[in-house]
Batch of 2 targets.
Target 1
Amino acid sequence: MPDALQSEDFGPTHIPFSRRFKVRSQAVAADFLVDVALPAPYLPGAGPWPILFVTDGNLAFPTAAATAGILPIEPGGPRAMCVVGIGYPLAGQGEAGEHLALRNRDLTPLRDEGWERRMRAAPPPFRFGDELHTGGGERFLDFIVEELTPWLAARFPVDAGDCVLAGSSFGATLALHALFTRPGAFARYLAISPALWWADRHLIELEERYARTHDDLAAQLYLCVGEAEEAQAPEVRMVSELEAFAGRLDGRGYRSLALSHEVLAGETHVSVFNAGISNGIRRLFGPG
């Protein structure tokens, strides 16, 4: 009988070898929840470790930390790394879903007032009020590059010169924006289902503008999208636009750009992160 089952409540779950911090950003003038997962001591290799920054940390950090924490064990697996999730302090256990609104502020590189009007009328927990605006991506990147990275380097055995910016949807949009606007800020980029349609196709224009004034792009980039996303939202052509975008990058002839891209069979905009983070880590790091 269930009543006879012996049990002991150990409280909230946690991820092994990880620490959680509340960090105040001067650049954004806001608090962030920063989760830091270091490699397990039984993993091969030694530090200082590359840093994998993962946006949407409230949702993405557990998966990213677990994936990066186990892949180095497999034959030919990637090297171990430090995973840093950037999320938001939540009331209670997150019942109000504050992170689902706040991400609109920090992960979008330009303001889109049409999107704001749409989300002010959206159902909870996606709805946000007049006090929140999109387009804070540059401030958020300042936080990562100028505040968070030095803070991490002062406290953990990490390589601040080997950073990956990883994100899905708006997080991937911000990663691609950083690729073209902040050369050298990150060594690698992991972009899962980027919103190439954002702000009248800002990223498409940004890539074209970059190509007109540069003959090289020094970075490693992994791009992916879920196969089922085109049918989910035909109006934004997630699969077609990503394939065209990757094709343009391939055709530029950038000698220092290591690009890999793929359409992940059967994945939707919601499910694609799990496969994308695993494949992306493998593509970007290769054998450890």
Target 2
Amino acid sequence: MAEFTQAVLIDGDFDRITEFMAPDLIQHNPWWGDGLEALSAGFAAQAEQGNALRYDTVHQIIGQGNFVLFMSEGALGDTPTAYYDLLRLDNGKVVEHWDVISEIPADMAHDNGKF
């Protein structure tokens, strides 16, 4: 999953997505439908609307059993954004995805940071 986050999400090499994700991906993000075609269309639609998703840094990757959580930082359009992605794997590929997308405020209420 570390290679997936670097190659696909940070470097933007979407041609490699089939190495990591099953074609019948179950998507729990309401912006996109199930499957890789819907995921690609969702990323493209976001970009066309000026709200492209960009991942810059993966802060932490935690795996247990067939679940992997990664906590990342990037932007949604021009807004600094935190991404928390939970993936379920089967036979080495992502078959299910949940996420939380949250704006990173310029002024935090504490000194701990978002991550």
